[in-house]
Amino acid sequence: MSGVYARRLSVVAATAALAATSALFTAPSAQAAMPTPVSAATARTYLGQLTVGAEGSSSGYSRDKFPHWITQSGTCNTREVVLKRDGTNVQQNAACAAISGSWYSPYDGATWSAASDVDIDHMIPLAEAWRSGASSWTTTQRRSFANDLTRPQLIAVTDNVNQSKGDRDPAEWMPPRTAYKCTYVRAWVHVKHHYGLSVDQAEKSALQTALNGC
User: Fold this and answer.
1) Any idea which UniProt keywords this protein has (predicted)?
2) Model pTM?
3) pLDDT tens-digit profile of 169-209?
4) How far apart are CA 190 and CA 150, in angstroms?
5) Into how many domains does the chain fold?
6) Domain interval for residue 89
């Protein structure tokens, strides 16, 4: 074997090894890949099927009653799975922590390069769910709700925007980016309908108005 040929084989092998390593720790490019909510027409139908009543009490509520960020696979918990899913070119270390990448927040249109600037928002806040019927659920049901990767319930967004939302419903808070409001209310109704959660009258009116504009 010639020296040149041997060096070529060495380069090919090194390139293959690097690609394999990248495949382990680099997520496919994505951008806020929350599961797609139902259409506006379906959301309007769902909204009409939701129970309307006075919002329940927060008495007895604790985030600990909704076990969240549970292990999903290997060393990765729910938060880390969503960070990988919703980011672009996300690299994770052996502990599954995101060490690089970028995250676009559809709530406000900002892009972040540090995972520490990003929160994973529960579309239906845990406290809101508690007041809307989840207070009567089992711990298993609340765990499933708090870690739901199938419905449009979890999304990576700017941390301080998520904090400004708190546990408020759409009668009290909407994403500051107008272009996302239709997606937001479709997702809100989708999740509430799936879990059989109620709405109060002001919440329903705000959702109806927003959906009529979709």
Assistant:
1) Endonuclease, Hydrolase, Nuclease, Signal
2) 0.85
3) 999 999 999 999 999 999 999 999 999 999 999 999 999 99
4) 11
5) 1
6) 3-212
